[in-house]
Design brief:
alpha/beta; seven-stranded mixed β-sheet
Amino acid sequence: MNPAEERRGFEPPPYPYERLDSFKPLGTAFEGGLVDLSIGTPCDPPPASVVAALAASNSERGYPPSVGNEPLRRAFSEWMNRRFAVDVPTSAIAACIGTKEFVGTLPQWMKLRSPWLDTVLYPSIAYPTYEMGATLAGCRAVAVPMNARGGVDLDAISDADAARALLLWVNSPSNPTGALDDLEAAATWGRSKGVPVFSDECYAEFTWASPARSILQHGSDGVIAVHSLSKRSNLAGLRVGAYAGDPDLVHYLGEVRKHVGMMVPGPAQAAAVAALNDDAHVSEQRDRYLARLRRMAQILSRWSGTDVPLPDGGFYLWFPVDDAWAFTERLAREGGALVSTGDLYGAAGAGFVRVAVVQTDDTIERVATRLGVR
């Protein structure tokens, strides 16, 4: 290796979804263009009250608290009490600029807190940012195998990895699989090993196989629940999320994050309060997503001859195919629709396809017509 190669630093890999770009032009052959089912971008409008609150907060000129203002944290606390029957004080809740940045930067802050530890544990089939956050922090990213139920196989974590672990990520309902994890078992494991457990619960409102669940239902010691308004309220562009749970962890992360100016804009906080205080629009969105999941599963099953099951949670269809990239290209050619291959969510996802069922009913029916499915 020559000296120049030795000095070369980190080179960011291609963003995972960019690998699908070659299929996008296939959608232009269809009237109406490409139907993008590869990314979970909500298409339905947020409530009018949320938009009104965004426009009329009169908070544009000031700097909002990094942890979120008291009305926002109180709204999150009251929502968690209604949804999960847990009592989380506002002092144990803090805001984040959407949850992706929280996931991606968390290992850096945890590494500063415990510099003798270097490992991030995360599900082997998962949202790519769990792994990338570890990489960006210079940590070991260790994928935990999945069990037969689709949750993390806690028994597969070696004692050596547990001893080096900064944190364990769990995700329930899972992106991409929709599986529900045993959050009580994860919390118990983390406490027994002294490993903080971070539970990504951004799809909790869309839990089909059981009532919505949170790791905080099993106590807050050593655990953090992460929530977002992106999916719940169709506010992905607003970038409002929150983390809640262990008071010491929440306080530590809030203190670190304020030093780098991580703050949700004031108008976005006002809009988030309006969204959190309105459960009716979420109930309506649940009905929409469940109907769309059923219809899209029916369409793809009839077209492909593959059994496409409904998920236990979330708004993604996840199912095995013989060749995921071939399936994805065929669907783009014949239906002008783009989906994701499972290997984008880890090597263990190879041989699967993920379909983000976020398009309108009319758009879904357009795909059905293109594929000749009634």
